Amino acid sequence: MKTRHRFLLLILLSLFISCQTKEPIEVKQIDSKEMVTLIPSLKNPSMTDSVVLSIPTEFRIIINSSNVGYIVWRYRANGKVILDDITDYQVCNKKNKLKLIYNLNFDEIPKDEFIDIIIKERNRLISKDEANNLLKKYKINKSIDYLKIGDTVKLVTYDKFRIENKDIINSLKKVQDSIDFKAMRGKDENFYTSKKINW
To answer: pTM score, two decimals?
Structure first.
């Protein structure tokens, strides 16, 4: 009887596991080794007292369903949807960092088991004094007084920046920044998930 009882339990357990279906996509934030940079404000190029501290984050999108055909996202800064995906933030596939992307369309790109995307936020202003302190800290002999559109000053990789600049990171953690994802399966079936950004 004991053997039969165990056999029945194993069957029930296997049925339970097989009935549990994974979500079409999973999204996980991963540690980024991309560069934190200083750039001029794209919204207000004539601004002279501040520059943009551009901080990268990375997310791994795991594809669990062969039926997922299209994935889009929406960025929220402090709870508000940011619509401008050029001046406020930019997204690229980690495999091709030079090309900006606005969605993942699997009619046009290969559907890998997972895709890593990099999000470069370009909406955080810091004073020139703060920026100069960062330049001194990382021994970068560059001036930010005459930054032009297209200029970029590289500071350090984000994994190091978040350890070495606790004040800045703690201020970011106080706000509700997140990214919403929508995966489409077929014409009518959508799946939504949201990830809070862990600065």
So the answer is: 0.83
